[in-house]
Specification:
CATH superfamily of the largest domain: Aminotransferase class 4, branched-chain amino acid transferase, N-terminal domain
Order of helices and strands: EEEEHEEEHHEEEHEEEEHEEEEHEH
Mean pLDDT: 92
Bound molecules: pyridoxal-5'-phosphate
Number of helices: 7
CATH class of the largest domain: Alpha Beta
Distance between the termini: 70 Å
Structural class: alpha+beta
Strand content: 25-35%
Number of domains: 2
């Protein structure tokens, strides 16, 4: 599919984030939303994807009967852009996110976003917000959130005829501000995140709604995450909150095979690295009782890469499985984490072809517009200051 040139859709009076590369507090960024300059949008209407639109508004104008609001026709993705020591910006395995979004779309009868369109939109969103890609060495990254929603109005339960594909970005802080430390997790037996033949294997918003209560309970009880079990038998490990689970023993990397877990791109990459490090990789069912045999355990996903697990408590069975007695991450977790992050930040060669370099954009309409807008804002600020000074002088007269 040929991607059409962009359309500018810029609202000059939108709140402008005046922070610059120099003034942002990169080291203390939370893992939360921050306004950036632009997002990129594309609409499916009358049987076609339109042109990419560059948008400065953070809001979506949408019909109240849109299917995403009523019937959960919503898919999203999450990936990151990393700034290297060489100042180059790298995206990690974005085609995998594109494919996963297409699989999600197919499963809930949404219009699929072609891989080229996904790629183009993600790259454009990063280029346009280049000033928000955190500096190398801060551990912070630019989180990229592609979103696909049914915007067509329907009242009966059926798929929409119109869709919006949108990509926004936001800088996020390092996941482990206090260092790469294992945390405690808890097995969840009261709730299921996904049904055996449900939507657990695709990235739809409904799965996350289904996990909110159990995750809140786990957090309230002092655990960093909930471990979900297979919904049918409550016998096997499924996932660890919004991350895949893995265990290490006898030089093996073992991770669950289940239809109700999301195929994690991080997990897939860790399996490749584990093999590369001479380990055996097993993707199979993991019975809860097998937890007692693991030397190390971790949860993995884009946000943290690896969250090493110190212990897993099974309250109903009154059991605690401990993986780290000294409170430190095990050597395998440590090594896998270092290798994967080294590839992502460009410290290690991209031996597996996982990286896309985001080329810098030339001075174009957008950056000209940015300069213009800054000048306007500065002159407004100067006028306000002048006015305030004049008033203050008049008062003292
Ligand atoms: C339910 C769930 N499992 C696993 C993952 C990890 O996937 P990835 O490594 O592709 O970020 C995510 C995050 O997207 C998730 O939401």
């Amino acid at each position: 599919m040929e991607v059409q040139p962009v359309i500018l859709n810029i609202d000059k009076m939108e709140a402008y984030n005046f922070n610059t590369m120099e003034t942002m507090d990169w080291k203390n960024l939370p893992f939360g939303y921050q306004k950036t300059d632009y997002n990129v949008r594309c609409y499916w209407r009358d049987g076609n994807w339109g042109r990419l639109e560059i948008c400065s508004s953070e809001f979506i104008h949408m019909h109240m009967a849109a299917t995403c609001l009523h019937y959960g026709q919503e898919a999203f993705e999450g990936l990151k852009a990393y700034r290297g020591a060489d100042n180059q910006i790298r995206l990690f395995r974005l085609e995998e996110n594109a494919k996963r979004m297409a699989e999600t779309a197919e499963y809930i009868l949404m219009q699929k976003v072609p891989v080229e369109l996904f790629r183009d939109a993600v790259i454009k969103a990063v280029q346009l917000n280049e000033r928000f890609v955190p500096p190398y060495g801060t551990g912070a990254t630019l989180y990229v959130r592609p979103l696909l929603i049914g915007t067509g109005a329907e009242v009966g339960v059926k798929p929409a005829k119109e869709y919006l594909f949108l990509v926004f970005v936001t800088p996020v802080g390092a996941y482990f501000k206090e260092g790469f430390k294992p945390t405690d997790m808890v097995i969840c037996r009261e709730y299921d995140r996904a049904a055996p033949l449900g939507t657990g294997h695709v990235k739809v918003g409904g799965n996350y709604a289904a996990s909110l209560l159990s995750l809140k309970k786990a957090h309230d009880e002092g655990y960093s995450s909930a471990i979900y079990l297979d919904a049918r038998e409550k016998k096997y490990i499924d996932e660890s909150g919004p991350a895949n689970f893995f265990g290490i023993k006898d030089n093996k990397y073992i991770t669950p095979r289940s239809r109700s877990i999301l195929p994690s791109i991080t997990n897939n990459s860790l399996m490749v690295l584990a093999k590369d490090m001479g380990m055996e990789v097993e993707q199979r069912q993991i019975e809860i009782s097998e937890l007692s045999t693991f030397e190390e355990a971790g949860a993995c996903g884009t946000a943290a890469v690896i969250s090493p697990i110190r212990s897993i408590t099974d309250p109903q069975m009154e059991k605690v499985y401990v993986f780290s007695k000294d409170g430190k991450a095990g050597p395998v977790c440590q090594k896998l984490y270092s290798r994967l992050t080294a590839i992502q930040f460009g410290d290690e060669p991209d031996k597996f072809g996982w990286i896309t370099i985001v080329e810098p954009t030339e001075t174009n309409t957008i950056s000209k517009y940015k300069m213009e807008l800054k000048e306007i804002m500065h002159s407004v600020a100067a006028n306000v200051k002048n006015y305030a000074n004049k008033r203050a002088k008049n008062k003292t007269k």
